[in-house]
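Q: How would the structure tokens look for this protein?
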Amino acid sequence: METPTTLLLLFLPLLLTLTFLLKRKHSTTCYMLNYECYKPSDHLKLDTEASCRVVLRNTNLGWEQYKFLLKTIVSSGLGEETHSPANVVAGREADPSLPDSLQELDHIFFQTLDNLFAKSRVSPREIDILVVNVSLLSPAPSLSSRIINRYGMRSDVKAFNLSGMGCSASLVAVDLVRQLFKTYRNRLAVVVSTESLGPNWYRGVDKSMMLSNCLFRSGGCSMLLTNRPEFRHRAILKLNHLVRTHFGSNDEAYNCCIQVEDDQGYAGFRLTKKLTKAAAQVFVINLRVLLPKILPPWEIIRFIFVYLRWGKRKNKLMEALSGGAGGGLNLKSGVDHFCIHPGGRAVIDGVGKSLGLSEYDLEPARMALHRFGNTSAGGLWYVLGYMEAKKRLRKGDRIMMISFGAGFKCNNCLWEVLKDLGDANVWEDCIHRYPPASLANPFTEKYGWINDERLSFVRIEDCVFSSNA
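A: Here is the predicted structure in token form.
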């Protein structure tokens, strides 16, 4: 007969293994407690009149450049209520200063963090990990140090400052936190995602670099994450999967979205026609890894038959996703909502077509682009906020976030909703107006019309060129 001591020794390895696995499960879990999007002041709005004034201040532009710019604005998908940095509104975009740049970020950092800490009932001194991502400004001391100084955070806080990561940086930061949670148990982490636009306003005439002025607007978001199991009942989302794909080894993809100087020495951000091709290629690579993780087995098996049947056709994966290959992959079997980076109308349309999504699925991204513009790394959270404000998010729902960024990168993830969501957020004062009857940009009515590739101004007193120029 075995003694109690012998039995204990026999079961001790099993007990230790189970304990390790349970601890590992807790430590690798990533919950979101809250997020807070930035809402700029009304005096920073870039409506049609303000946009026209900014355009006309650039004396380097000729008639062809003006025509291109205004056509782009008309078709951009942006509305009347987007915002720009204070130095642009004040007419100082040609000569930005470091104080202007830091003030722009301070407003975003401190408004979102103040609200986040208050809403979450968490003190800044409780934060264990801080990740800040701003691609186009990297001062010394770092931006993360600026936040630590402002809030008096602890000396042992693990601080990270990410730059140059582009519009997809937000999910890069979340993934960094997720990886740190594997090592550090029972932690609280803050991620701050935004962009420095003020010192990066393009003043030249290169059309591929003028696009950024038409699309990018002020915005940002701060998020509170944790792996503390006792906080699960307070959490709103749980991160189930996150896949990062980097296509930078491809020269065409690397150069399609890049910060450069033009031939006249003006710095800016170049967006080339190769961007859509690069996005499609890296999207396919990412989905090959992500979809098996988020779709039920029966849907994967059905997709394999479709994939093999159409194996010789080009873009077979994307065709199968959208139904073009005959079978069509049903993403709704594993995803309830699609949170697409509002990088521009072409990006939203492209993702919608590739995945066979409905206008209902694309509505949050289109509305975020219309109301706030392309806010770079902060954009995904305005889309999420729209879903919450519309009370679409219910307990158990799954949200697929889709983001693209310079590099070229595609970072996608799946969140699980842990409770019915509908709290007041950045959309509170305007959600009743969305979706509007029309997304047409008012430039068409106020400053001209487009007919057979010809744009003519109807308010010559407000603009320097007429249709006879």
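The chain has two domains: 26-237, 241-439.

The first strand starts at residue 31 and ends at 37.

Upvote if useful.
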